[in-house]
Specification:
Distance between the termini: 12 Å
Oligomer: single chain
Strand content: 15-25%
Order of helices and strands: HEHEHEEEEHEHEEEEEHEHEHHEHEEHHH
Number of strands: 17
Structural class: alpha+beta
Number of helices: 13
Length: 470
């Protein structure tokens, strides 16, 4: 790789001011703020394009020199997904941050990859619309968060199953490609299927491994006129499973979350975990739409109260629960910049498997972890009565090299145990990479075949969605 010659060619197609050459600034792209335990990887260059044409030219030149490209649109790298594992060029898409259009009739927006949740919601407030926020912060790119399949707080209904409708992509071979109805010049980007093959889901979870997304149309929803949080406490981790299943069967509410005591109090920044608070708490948001909002909330509350009585649950309220309800309601509506001090193990599972897997995680922590590590849990039902996203949050004390080394081993072991017990991990990079690859079998060959089609020179974020690296 002739880096100097590559720089010369790059300067011919990209404004020189868009190429970062200061080493201190380049070094800032070497860290993963979500997982500080991931080894730093310093890129050779960072470029900040401001147009589709610049992105395309960058990819074309990188193909000529076989330079790895790592697209990055969020402020933070998460799970090692945008780390320059093999050096190369970070393409920072933060300047591509236009809200291209808002269609309040068909309830979709067209945005560039640098648009954040906070930025878009501020604009949607003018149209009485809202986004469906993910579990991460307001400073994250809405496109990369949705394509990475980060869970939203919403129990999926049909119309919100796929929030990304259409994509505009610069593929790894330098071609510009549009999916769904966007493939037709005269059609608006409101329908995921078009005149060509259905490609739009192929790019979900690819983390820039097939191309660079330069625009996307995103589904949004009307703002409710009325909202109310109902919280239901539980004593053990086995108690809430059937109750949540019953709530989902009756399709009550939209956003919901289950928290154990540690994570609930951490939401409130309460250090003293001996405070009087339920061991587990289920919070569900009831919404009143444009027509008869109060009536809808009232009949959902009546139905919810019947379930509470059926399950013999004693409701309790105190000041901390009231504070948590308000905090969670804010989170459901406008994603916050949460400053977490944990290392999260994210898995998907059917909710009936949770008690067994939770007990396995607890047992492993008690047997192998000499330094006490608190275990927080957050659960979001992402498909009604099918799948739940479960985040096991570990709060270790990592003050010495021994503690760091032992925790890395423990973290991998916990991932292995969760998989063996029936959970699914969908992050094929970062600290869980080898754990995932050890279970996928021939799927790796299929991933490679797909990548060879869209990225024949294997320059797009190599090593993230396929096992081998260049």
């Amino acid at each position: 790789m002739d880096l100097n010659e590559f720089k010369i060619e790059l300067e011919k197609v990209v404004d020189n001011n868009h190429i970062i050459k200061d080493q201190d600034r380049i070094n800032r792209y070497s860290q993963d703020q979500h997982y500080p335990l991931i080894e730093e990887k310093i890129p050779e260059l960072v470029v900040i394009p401001e147009s589709l044409e610049e992105v395309q030219q960058i990819v074309i030149v990188a193909n000529q020199f076989k330079i790895p490209i790592i697209p990055k649109s969020s402020e933070k790298s998460r799970y090692g997904g945008t780390m320059a594992n093999n050096g190369g060029l970070i393409v920072d898409l933060g300047k591509l941050n236009r809200i291209v259009s808002v269609d309040d009739t068909n309830m979709h927006v067209v945005v560039e990859p640098g648009v954040t949740f906070k930025q878009l919601q501020n604009e949607l407030d003018n149209y009485k619309l809202r986004i469906l926020p993910t579990i991460f912060s307001s400073s994250d790119s809405i496109i990369s968060s949705y394509l990475a399949r980060y869970p939203t707080y919403s129990m999926a209904k049909f119309e919100y199953t796929d929030l990304v409708v259409n994509l505009e992509i610069v593929l790894g071979n330098g071609e510009i490609f549009r999916t769904g109805s966007w493939a037709s010049v005269k059609s608006p980007p409101v329908y995921p299927y078009g005149s060509s093959l259905d490609f739009f889901r192929i790019f979900h979870g690819a983390r820039g491994g097939l191309g660079i997304i330069t625009k996307a149309s995103i589904r949004v929803k009307p703002k409710p006129l009325v909202q109310e949080i109902v919280s239901v406490p539980f004593f053990t981790h086995k108690d809430f499973v059937n109750f949540v299943y019953d709530v989902q069967r009756k399709e009550m509410g939209i956003e919901c979350i289950v928290l154990n005591k540690i994570n609930a109090l951490n939401y409130l920044h309460v250090e003293d975990k001996s405070m009087d608070f339920p061991n587990w708490i289920f919070l569900i948001c009831l919404e009143g739409p444009q027509r008869f909002p109060e009536e809808k909330i009232e009949y959902e509350k009546e139905a919810l109260n019947r379930l509470i009585k059926k399950h013999s649950i004693n409701l309790k309220m105190n000041n901390l629960i009231n504070q948590l309800e308000q905090k969670i309601l804010n989170e459901f509506n406008t994603p916050q910049d949460l400053k977490k001090k944990s290392y999260d193990l994210p898995v998907y599972l059917t909710l009936n498997k949770f008690p067994e897997i939770y007990s396995i995680i607890q047992n492993e922590l008690s047997q192998t972890n000499e330094d006490k590590t608190d275990l927080g849990v957050s659960i979001i039902p992402v498909e009604r009565n099918r799948t739940a996203y479960v985040e096991f949050d570990l709060y270790p004390a990592l003050n010495t090299e021994r503690q760091i080394t032992e925790f890395k081993t423990l973290f991998r072991n916990l991932g292995e145990l969760a998989l063996k017990a029936g959970a699914i991990i969908d992050i094929p990079y970062g600290p869980l990479k080898q754990v995932v690859y050890s279970k996928v079998g021939n799927y790796l060959a299929l991933i490679k075949d797909v990548k060879d089609i869209f990225d024949p020179n294997n320059i797009m974020n190599p090593g993230k969605i396929e096992k081998e690296v260049i």
